[in-house]
Request: fold
Amino acid sequence: MKSITKTAILTGSTGGIGLEIARSLAMQGWDLGLINRSQEKTNFQLEDLRKSYPNQEFVGFVANLMDVLDIRRVAAEIGSRYAEVSALYNIAGLLTEKRIMSPQNIEGHFAINTLAPYYLTQLLRKELSAGATTDRHSVVVNFSSSAMNGVKDLDVATLTNPESIGGLMGAYAKSKAALTAVSHLVKEELLEDGILIEVVDPGPTKTSMTGSSDGMPWFLLLLRPLIFKSAKFQAQRLVDAVETAVTEKKSGLFISEGRQKAYPSIALNKHSQIDIKLLLDTQVQLFAVEDTQKDAVN
Reply:
């Protein structure tokens, strides 16, 4: 018999919109597994949640989501802890104008914003499928950005190591476009396992990421006090919109600022979708093989 308690896994939950989404879900009675890079910040968040909701379970997992091998490790930890997962919120993201490379030599925006959510979803498919019921599907929520509306061309061959980074409208926007595209492609595949997938664009949000000049255009920093909304406001309408999609058993929706909208055209090119998925699968398989060989030697 299925348990009544629902468990959600969140990445990037210790600040900004991730923090508010965790609070919103906890208020609704969810148990939460929180994946973050900082042990200290995660412990502080866990202490706060446990104090506010003593009858629910909150567990912290520490991982570097820029590292493919660390994603594998933390997914295995989650699988050992939970037999069923009802929701996966892939919130963690990177925005910078600097070139940062992952341990596998993948450009940071693509590693965290595209590869990490895709790979974590694949690794937790068994638990997500087990978390689905006759009346309610499990759901994966991938975070996109309106920045991708400025992407005119998506050269898949350069995503893992672009010539320039370019801040918000460069590698960041392209990594979000790539995630949106591949999310649209895999919706039918996931649905076979009882898993819905939704892509969300929270809209302009006041967070530490959008308040920094590292990657944010100067004109948006000037407009931020006027047009950017609070993380609490954006989180609540995002959670409500996802809940509506799950209740209506709709998969593959693009939800922008709390409303269902048409996908940006850059994410609907079928050839690009297939090429992006092939790129992601190739990266995952490549480093999984290397890791297996390393273990064999040791």
Remarks:
- The first helix runs from residue 16 to 27.
- The mean pLDDT is 91.
